[in-house]
């Protein structure tokens, strides 16, 4: 007797969405967290900025049910490329960009910026997320706890401020660090640098500034481990996110066992 065919596994939903006006828009669903439970699809999205979305792009977001947009861009960035999406509540959590200013300061001293300088600047930026911008990331966590309405969070390129936020969320949900790093590095496959951006710097420097490297996120996570006693202590002592809140977040964003 032939064996009956095995039931086909349903295909996983799309992770990345090739929008015309945003190249780095993607879903955090499907990664396996605490207790073998996967992150729910179509709840948490990360992206580059949304000011360039076409009407067709906006229709895709509406179809996905996106109800909230969290904008990590600095005040001047968000003012220069403002947007309003029908039916989407807008939540600014400003994190001022520091890399460009610090690069300009170095150049004003007469120094030609190198790729290694740029890596150091990016690592310092990520340490600043952990230390100086914790209130903004705490604000994101409070929003996610208040409701599990589908949410997109973004900055300008969707790679650094957004990348650290995505890593924090996934790690809190129990996703292993190597998987979190894999998601973080997807930016290098997806994100397309706007033409003419930062054209005054050498191309080797731009390649560092407009992409992501393991060393960037590692700088932040090492600081969480070494300066704050690890993720649990950071969540509780710095973000004000205790065990009960973490359990509630898992209940909202992980599939039932």
UniProtKB/TrEMBL annotation:
Q: Name one Pfam family in it.
A: Y_phosphatase3
Highest taxon of the lineage: Bacteria
Per the UniProt record, the source organism is Acidovorax delafieldii 2AN
Which GO molecular function terms does the record list?
phosphoprotein phosphatase activity
Q: Which InterPro entries match?
A: Prot-tyrosine_phosphatase-like, Tyr/Ser_Pase_IphP-type, Tyr_Pase_AS
Name this protein carries in UniProt: Protein tyrosine/serine phosphatase
Q: Which residues form a coiled coil?
A: none
Q: Where are the transmembrane segments?
A: none
């Amino acid at each position: 007797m032939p064996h009956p065919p095995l039931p086909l596994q349903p295909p996983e939903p799309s992770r990345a969405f090739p929008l015309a006006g945003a190249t780095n828009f993607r879903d955090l669903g499907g990664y396996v967290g605490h207790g073998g439970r996967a992150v729910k699809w179509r709840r948490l999205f990360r992206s580059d900025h949304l000011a360039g979305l076409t009407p067709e792009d906006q229709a895709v977001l509406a179809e996905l049910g996106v109800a909230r947009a969290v904008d990590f861009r600095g005040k001047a960035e968000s003012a220069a490329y403002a947007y309003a999406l029908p039916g989407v509540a807008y939540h600014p959590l400003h994190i001022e960009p520091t890399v460009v200013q610090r690069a300009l300061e170095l150049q004003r001293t007469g120094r030609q910026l190198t790729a290694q300088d740029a890596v150091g600047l990016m690592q310092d930026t990520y340490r600043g997320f952990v230390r100086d911008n914790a209130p903004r990331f705490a604000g994101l966590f409070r929003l996610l706890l208040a409701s599990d309405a589908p949410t997109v969070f973004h900055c300008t390129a969707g790679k650094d401020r957004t990348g650290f936020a995505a890593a924090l969320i996934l790690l809190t949900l129990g996703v292993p660090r190597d998987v979190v790093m894999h998601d973080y590095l997807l930016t290098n496959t997806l994100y397309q640098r706007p033409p003419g951006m930062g054209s005054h710097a050498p191309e080797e420097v731009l390649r560092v500034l407009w992409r992501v490297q393991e060393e960037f996120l590692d700088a932040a996570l090492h600081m969480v481990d070494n300066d704050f006693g690890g993720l649990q202590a950071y969540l509780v002592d710095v973000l004000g996110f205790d065990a009960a809140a973490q359990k509630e977040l898992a209940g909202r964003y992980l599939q039932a066992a």
